[in-house]
Write a structure and sequence with these properties.
The structure holds 2 protein chains of 2 kinds. Chain A is of the alpha+beta class. Helices cover 46% and strands 19% of the residues of chain A. In chain A, strands 4-3-8-10 form a 4-stranded antiparallel β-sheet, with no helix packed on it. Chain A starts with a helix and ends in a 12-residue tail after the last strand. Chain B is mostly helical. Chain B is globular, with a radius of gyration of 19 Å. The termini of chain B are far apart. Mean pLDDT of chain B is 79; it is low at 117-123. Classes of the chains: A alpha+beta, B mainly alpha. The A-B interface holds A 10, 12-14, 17, 19-20, 45-46, 49-50, 52-62, 64-66, 68-69, 72-73, 76-77 and B 33, 36, 40, 44-46, 48-49, 52-53, 58, 61-62, 65-66, 69-70, 73-74, 114, 116-117, 121, 124-125, 128, 141, 144-145, 148-149, 152, 163, 166-168, 170, 172-173, 184, 188, 191-192, 195-196, 198-199, 202-203, 208.
């Protein structure tokens, strides 16, 4: 009951609130205030400050702040992570969409052309698939002694199916055999090689082994003369090997 | 929507209020936009007032208010009803307000000042003067409020927050303790210390 002014003033905060102030505290403060003018003055000042605080105007939101709040909340309501990421991705890449599409298409075109050149096999080329080799159509009756090793020769056939030249590559190359070969080549008829349906010059490699030709119109499979190679589209006259 | 309608028409009692608030929270957690609009309409001005008094700056208060309601909207799923919805929202608001000015840049950068609001303050005070109060008295009151506001803004943030919650929002001690996440004894001591500091500052300014 006989606290100092300092102790009493420490209890002013509780005393003015009345909410947590116990009965004993209330009584002791009241008793002190009855006898202490300085503390009464101090209490009045504190109550005045509290009153000033309570009388402070409550600030209200401006219309602009309200608008900003609504915009922020609207964004928050509709800002799911996936949607947000999608939107950011679209905003970032939409300007690049047309150039990127053009670049991808150009790349695909180049790749397609490159692969086309790389993948298509030479045999499938149209100019070769439309080519046919020269072949024997008829032989004159002739008897040639080629020996056991046979005779290999390269024959140049023109577009009319006639032999314009030949070279003996291996075998008996005696004058007697050569004379017989001249007769054979001169009078024999070939079916010319063709390219894209048109007759063209070509070479035919013939292998002759101990033959006796007695009649014309002998197919190469029935006789002993075998065309073993023909046609090469890269040179003129045409050269080929099979 | 029943909870929102019930809240809009008033409550029958404390138990009914708690029930209706639980229903409102359930609707908020279910994503009801109507419930959120109701909460926004009911609390945006009190929360704005609280934040503006703690910060002492209306422009910053608008920024903080956005953060508060965005956090309320996003965090309503984590609200378990251990405190009232108002206490939970005030807790977010006080934390946001106290954290807002912690950065060096924000403390040292020039304060944004709304010319409209600054110039409107005395006019508002004069226009809302009680009947029988002379313009001179109204002007004196407005000037006094301005000084009190400045003295309050000069207090350290923990004392300022307690004083605002107690004197301006008239919250009981236990609710203040719940909002600030401190013990009731700490609320009492901060309140006592805050009042003392404020009285000294005002005594210096007003010459008491």
């Amino acid at each position: 009951m006989f606290e100092s002014c300092l102790e009493i003033r420490r209890q002013f905060s509780e005393y003015v609130d009345l909410e947590t102030c116990g009965r004993a505290t209330r009584l002791s403060v009241r008793y002190h205030l009855q006898n202490c003018a300085s503390c009464r003055r101090e209490l009045e000042l504190r109550q005045l400050v509290d009153s000033d605080l309570r009388s402070l105007p409550r600030p209200r939101m401006s219309a602009f702040a309200d608008l900003r709040l609504n915009v922020a909340l609207s964004r928050a309501r509709h800002a799911h992570i996936l949607a947000s990421l999608t939107l950011k991705f679209e905003n970032a890449f939409r300007p690049l969409l047309l150039p990127a599409s053009g670049a991808v298409l150009a790349g695909l075109l180049c790749l397609g052309l490159t692969l086309h050149c790389l993948i298509v096999p030479p045999a499938a080329r149209p100019e070769e698939s439309l080519a046919t080799p020269a072949r024997i159509e008829s032989l004159i009756p002739v008897e040639i002694n080629t020996g056991d090793s046979g005779l290999w020769m390269v024959t140049h056939v023109n577009s009319e199916g006639r032999v314009v030249d030949y070279q003996v590559v291996s075998g008996n190359n005696s004058p007697a055999v050569k004379s017989q070969l001249d007769r054979l080549m001169y009078f024999s008829v070939f079916h010319p090689a063709t390219r894209s349906g048109r007759p063209t010059d070509a070479q035919v490699v013939l292998a002759i082994r101990r033959i006796t030709v007695r009649a014309s119109n002998v197919s190469p499979h029935e006789g002993n003369v075998k065309p073993v190679s023909f046609f090469s589209p890269s040179s003129t006259p045409e050269r080929s090997r099979a | 929507m029943e909870a929102v309608r019930a809240l809009q028409t008033g409550f029958d009692g404390v138990g009914s209020q708690a029930t209706e608030e639980a229903a409102l929270v359930a609707e908020l957690q279910a994503g009801s936009e109507e419930a959120f609009d109701y909460v926004l309409g009911a609390y945006k001005n009190p929360v704005y007032s609280l934040v503006a008094h703690i910060l002492g700056n209306d422009a910053d208060a608008a920024d903080v208010l956005q953060n508060v309601f965005v956090k309320v909207f996003r965090g309503i799923g984590q609200f378990h009803g251990h405190s009232s919805l108002k206490t939970w929202m005030y807790r977010i608001a006080v934390r946001e307000a106290l954290n807002y000015r912690r950065g060096w840049f924000r403390r040292h950068v020039h304060e944004p000042v709304s010319l409209d609001e600054e110039s409107a303050e005395p006019v508002t005070a004069l226009s809302t003067k009680p009947c029988g109060e002379s313009p001179y008295e109204a002007l004196e009151l407005a000037e006094r409020q301005k000084l009190v506001k400045a003295a309050l803004a000069a207090l350290p943030p923990p004392y300022r927050a307690v004083l605002v919650l107690r004197e301006i929002d008239e919250m009981p001690y236990d609710e203040i303790a719940d909002v600030l996440g401190i013990a009731e004894g700490t609320v009492k001591s901060r309140l006592m210390r805050g009042r003392e500091l404020l009285r000294r500052k005002l005594a210096t300014i007003l010459g008491h």
